[in-house]
Specification:
Oligomer: single chain
CATH class: Mainly Beta
């Protein structure tokens, strides 16, 4: 296999993670609570809800939750992993939404 291609495949997809006593997995509903407010998107997406489409770990062992927003008209595109319809946040930047009904 070409070594260049091996280098480009640096993310690992995880089944789930335990963070602060809560287990997050694909399909869980969460609310976005950005910590850094690094750009305008953090402010616009604050408080929005969505589902975890994937949990990924990069080559520096940082974990990211790939979220698809509930109110995105292109939600299906996010589920198909298309650019512009998935948003990446760290576990400390989301809050689990529990269906306690």
């Amino acid at each position: 296999m070409n070594e260049e291609w091996e280098f480009l495949n640096i993310n690992t997809r995880l089944e789930g993670i335990l963070f602060e006593g809560i287990y997050y997995k694909e399909g869980d509903r969460v609310r976005i609570q950005p910590q850094s407010r690094a750009d305008i998107m953090d402010m616009v997406l604050e408080g929005k809800t969505g589902i975890i489409e994937a949990i990924e770990q990069d080559f520096e062992n940082r974990i990211y939750l790939a979220l698809v927003l509930d109110d995105d008209p292109g939600k299906e595109l996010g589920m198909w992993r298309q650019p512009g319809h998935r948003f990446f946040y760290s576990p400390e930047e989301v809050e689990m939404i529990r269906d306690d009904a």
